[in-house]
Amino acid sequence: MDRFCERCERITQDGNLWCERTDCPAEQGYGVLKYGDHLGDLKVTKLLRVWRTAALYEAVRGDETVLLKVAHRSDDCEERLKRETTVLETLADKPWFPFSLIKSFLPSSRPLLPVPLSPYPVSSKRPYGELTFRGETKFFSIFRHAQGKFLSDLLLENPQLWHYQAAWIVIALAEALRPIASSNRCHLCLTPDMILIDTDKEGYLRPLLLDLGLIVGGNEMESVYDWTKIWEPAYTAPELLLSPRTKTAAPTADVYSLGMILYEMLAGKPAFESKTQRDDQIREVVTQHRSTRPLERPELEHPGVAKIVERAINPNPASRFSNVIELANTLIAVYSKPPTEKRAVPGRLYLLIGTLALISLIVLAMAAYILIRLLLIR
């Protein structure tokens, strides 16, 4: 396997990485699959992203292109993938047969979360897969393929998004997080690297949240093994960084992370730089910065958007919105909901209409023939 450094984003084949920065954690890089590697019946074609708990690939199974997520080799990474895939399986839309048949002929809505697929060519009782690859057990999940750019890459091309687009992205992400927020659980790992952005035919940006995070609530934090190495400190609520042994997490922590992403899209730069510093350095800066970060965009002062952002990323959790849904509703009051996307009509609908029209013509012709015969007999 190749080795990938999450800090300097270098890939090597011999397991030895080198970086000009003395504090680069190169030798602790993650093992990743490369082009042509096979995981069961899946062939890896492209490495898309490497996160702290898993790597995301483009892969093919037969004639189908899919997204493949493989957990890094550790208990906490593997357990997180299992937890996430199980939750996504329960959230998947699975209507009864008559309704699913009817729905297949109608335009489909764009998903906000990955659509899980069976980990094996045959049905499986578990939504995630487990295979041995070169002597190592790999836990993986498979999702329907999706197009787009990662938000982190998009912000490199266009650092300051149109504020309507930025707000609509956050509103859509909050909707994706609704199942978690409504059950008083938390994501805790939101970053621009986990968001895939596609542009629809009208030019609007449509997000897909590729990762559900820790999915913990209340005192469930203790069920996660070493969560301090899982999340990005630059997007993590300071109260969690101040108490590294905490066993509880509140939904306001996700408000902070989503607010930091909104701030980055509007300000044109991240509130805290994460690529040029070690985690302990970032943690120190985040926890010591106890004042709100102003958003210097004059056009956002009058509608109150700057105040919304400042409230979302307030270092004091009691001063934030109670959850991401409240943040989204506040943005909707200013920007309204994201424009409805015009999705293409499935080709099978036209085929069905054509078939029904042909059958109708045949029935009418037969009825006319029978009627004429009856009239001639009389």
What's the quick description here?
By secondary structure, this protein is of the alpha+beta class.
* First-to-last CA distance: 86 Å
Overall number of domains: 3
CATH topology of the largest domain: Transferase(Phosphotransferase), domain 1
Gross geometry:
globular
Structural class: alpha+beta
Q: Characterize the biggest β-sheet.
A: 7 strands, antiparallel
Order of helices and strands: EEEEEEEHHEEEEHHHEEHHHHHH
Given as residue ranges, the uncertain stretches (5+ residues, pLDDT < 50) are: none
CATH level 1 class label of the largest domain? Mainly Alpha
Describe this structure in words.
- This protein has helices at residues 75-91, 97-103, 151-157, 163-176, 178-182, 238-242, 252-267, 279-288, 305-312, 324-335, 347-377, and strands spanning 2-4, 11-12, 30-32, 38-39, 42-50, 54-61, 64-71, 116-117, 129-133, 136-144, 149-150, 195-199, 205-209.
- The chain has 378 residues and is an alpha+beta fold.
- It has three domains: 33-146, 2-Layer Sandwich (Phosphorylase Kinase, domain 1); 147-343, Transferase(Phosphotransferase), domain 1; 345-378.
- The N and C termini lie far apart (86 Å).
